[in-house]
Amino acid sequence: MSDAPWLHIVGIGEDGLDGLTPAARTVVETAEVIVGGDRHHALSDTITAERLAWPHPFDALIDTLTGLRQRRVVVLATGDPLWFSVGARIGRAIPAGQIAYHPQLSAFQLAAARMGWSMADLETLTVHGRPVAQMIAFIQPDARLLILTTGADTPAQIARFLTERGFGQSQMTVLANMGGADEARFDGIAQAWTHEVPPFNTLAVDCIAAPDAALLPRVPGLADDLFRSDGTMTKREVRAATLAKLMPMRGALLWDIGCGSGSVAIEWMRAARSARAIGIEPRPDRRAMAAENALALGAPRLDLREGSVPDALADLPAPDAVFIGGGLSEATFAAAWTALRPLGRLVANAVTLESETLLMALHAKHGGDLVRLSIDRAEPVGRYRGWRAAMPVTQWSLIKR
Questions:
Q1: How confident is the model over 16-29, as a mean pLDDT?
Q2: Is residue 138 located within the same domain as residue 274?
Q3: Is the terminal CB of the chain with fewer CB neighbours within 10 Å at N or C?
Q4: Cα(259)–Cα(280) distance, integer angstroms
Q5: CB neighbours of 38 closer than 8 A, spacing ≥ 6?
Q6: What are 275-285's pLDDT values in tens digits?
Q7: 15 belongs to a structural domain
């Protein structure tokens, strides 16, 4: 049939062709072209077909595949092609009706079975080809993590992250070559991890917190002292209220205008899987602080841009949410509001009388919610304690409908 899928993406495990279903094996055996990595080709080396390696750069893969459309094409992937794998990348570029997927057991499923862990009660992560520091956001007391690593050095790097945050007693297990003749397992605790492990592995972590461990929940409102700043950051309580109005969602993009130390953007990225943020900040010292904070708190993909608004907003990808923490003006609001996607959220905070007056005028014209946030902290007053007020923050928020 003319509308039949022309591209087959087949998951393959360490047991090679023997582990495939009869239908999937037939697809591979009758392929004219097989695309995959060296490991995939070695697992299917009895099949006589033209062999293509992953292209360099990898983004050229789609052009390579579409150029083969008139032939019987198979892409080999590890395990489940749609679970942190190449199948998802291909599926975003080629219509679903043109692709047939043939999944195998994923590394996550095999690892969970080896550990005796329920898949419903753990987090599945990948740092394969991605910044390893992004797993820091998932270090929680009693959390169980299954992590696709990026190589032999990754477990030791993650062990260091755990130990530095007071989770040095966490149990770690590296599982390599699962399902194959050379399957291997390495067990230890984070603070004493010394194993040399194969480069292709999956890491299981049972997080165990010491009494003095850093508590870094993904719910917004991290302690202020977890961020390096020059004192101008959005403080904890106001930050939590701000993010509640910004509504972090999976894969959504935030513009953080006047990013400063990056606290709002970082908490946005921690709060939802695959959430993205662009921080616009004209001062290089503050961008450096934001980058340092992003690495330390598990948001290494924070995209920091130099520039002043509104000019710096031109040509940025359309956001799902905008936070204006600095550089507030009518022109900045107009540019952000125009770029904001439907159902997008905009929040602007003001501490000066001049910026508060502008927010009141914008609220009168565009509607939304206008609130004033006042925070008092108990501090020493001689031998006693008293309330010390922080500067009140006027917050304007609205949704684009």
A1: 94
A2: no
A3: N
A4: 6
A5: 53
A6: 999 999 999 99
A7: yes
- Count of domains observed in the chain: 3
Q: Can you give the CATH number for the domain in which 280 is found?
A: 3.40.50.150
Long-range contacts of 46-49 (CB under 8 A, 24+ apart): 46/17, 47/17, 49/74
Average pLDDT over residues 230-234: 90
Range of the domain at 132: 108-206
* Last-in-domain residue among 104, 129, 164: 104
Q: Is the pTM of this model over 0.85?
A: yes
**How are beta strands 369-373 and 201-206 bridged, if at all?**
unpaired
Which letter does DSSP use for residue 19 in this model? Answer: G
Burial class (CB in 10 A: 0-12, 13-18, 19+), 48: exposed
Q: How buried is residue 381: exposed, middle or buried, by Cβ count under 10 Å (0-12/13-18/19+)? A: exposed
3-class DSSP state for residue 18?
helix
Residue with tokens 């920091």: 304
CA-closest candidate to residue 227, choices 292, 164, 272: 292
pLDDT in tens, 49-63: 999 999 988 889 999
* H-run or E-run covering 61: helix 61-66
Confidence band, pLDDT 50/70/90 cuts, at residue 231? confident
Helix, strand, coil shares of the chain, percent, nearest 5, are 35, 25, 45
Confidence tier at 1 by pLDDT (50, 70, 90): very low
Using CA atoms, how far apart are residues 347 and 255, in angstroms rounded to an integer?
A: 11
User: SS3 for 3?
Assistant: coil
Going 359 to 362 to 366 to 367, the CA torsion angle's sign is positive
Q: Residue 2: pLDDT above 70?
A: no
